[in-house]
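TA notes, week 10

Several of you asked for a full example with nothing omitted. So below is the full record: structure tokens for the whole chain, then the designed sequence directly under it. When grading your own attempts, check the secondary structure regions first.
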């Protein structure tokens, strides 16, 4: 069974990976928009929300999720 701490770590890792992936796509120059486009901003916001949700689960310890 997965604990709340483990779920928090998974969500935190997914959020951080998402942010890195979004900036990697921008760095590779995919798309026609110069800089961070509107879709990337929405994706960055979603990845940040997932990471923050993961952070809130970390202090809850070893209780089952």
């Amino acid at each position: 069974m997965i604990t709340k701490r483990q779920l928090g770590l998974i969500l935190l890792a997914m959020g951080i990976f998402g942010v890195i992936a979004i900036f990697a796509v921008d760095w590779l120059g995919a798309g026609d928009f110069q800089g961070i486009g509107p879709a990337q901003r929405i994706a960055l916001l979603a990845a940040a929300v997932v990471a923050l949700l993961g952070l809130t689960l970390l202090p809850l310890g070893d209780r089952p999720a």
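The mean pLDDT is 89. Use that as a sanity check on your answer.
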